[in-house]
Design goal:
The protein is α+β, with helices and mostly antiparallel strands and about 210 residues long. Helix content is about 30%, strand content about 20%. It has 5 helices and 12 strands. Strands 1-4-5 form a 3-stranded mixed β-sheet. A 3-stranded mixed β-sheet has the order 6-7-10. A hairpin with a 6-residue loop joins strand 6 and strand 7. The protein is globular and about 55 Å long. It comes from Menura novaehollandiae (superb lyrebird). GO terms for molecular function: calcium ion binding; histone arginine deiminase activity. InterPro entries: PAD, PAD_C.
Length: about 210
């Protein structure tokens, strides 16, 4: 159409990775930060920051996005994820109030709070994740590796390994929470914690245990 255009670039030397995917390029709603207006929002990209090693978006793509000054990109830490895309832990939804939006953040802490509430209400034996590969959650003392059993809220809460995985993930998300609050001018009341659960793969990267913010 007459109002559509695109840019196509090929990296000459850098190899591409999953961090170059469109899921790793998000944009916030319009925001005002420290007196500066961003009427088209700010670009959000994932990176290995704050670590010195790890995956980063191809320099060609990163430089192109940095050049779009009107949406001044914010670099987040996403290399803790197996796929490494920011849309796996952050997204935005519209509201009808003055703020006009809320930011949703994946939150293992919120998931564990929810499960503990249900456990106290007597729902600890409720079946979870039916039909999904559940060896990690079902595993307990003496369990055969790879053997899948019925998963309940009680079993999820009793799994120390899974709790450790999600404690690590929560720390990664909290790092990004502080960056997003500062760079988008957000308050705690502008953020909604979305219950989520993750597990770490053999490389120590996080995989969403059930559907993420996408």
């Amino acid at each position: 159409g007459p109002d559509f255009g695109y840019v196509h670039k090929e990296p000459l030397f850098d190899s591409t990775a999953s961090l170059d995917s469109f899921g790793n390029v998000e944009v916030s709603p319009p925001v005002s930060v420290a007196g500066k207006e961003y009427p088209l929002g700010r670009i959000l990209i994932g990176s290995s920051f704050p670590t010195s090693a790890g995956r980063r978006m191809t320099r060609l793509v990163r430089d192109f996005l940095q050049a779009q000054q009107v949406q001044a990109p914010v670099e987040l830490f996403s290399d803790w994820l197996a796929l490494g895309n920011v849309n796996q832990f952050v997204t935005f939804v519209p509201t009808s109030d003055k703020k006009r939006f809320r930011m949703l953040l994946a939150s293992p802490a919120a998931c564990y709070r929810l499960f503990r509430e249900k456990q106290k209400e007597g729902q600890g034996e409720a079946t979870m994740f039916k039909g999904k590969g559940t060896a990690l959650v079902a595993a307990g003392p003496g369990a055969t590796r790879g053997h899948t059993k019925r998963v309940t809220i009680n079993k999820v809460l009793a799994n120390d390994v899974l709790a450790q995985h999600n404690h690590y993930v929560q720390r990664c998300i909290d790092w990004n929470r502080d960056i997003l609050k500062r760079e988008l001018g957000l308050l705690e009341e502008d953020i909604i914690d979305l219950p989520a659960l993750f597990k770490l793969d053999k490389q120590g990267k996080a995989v969403p245990y059930f559907p993420n913010t996408v």
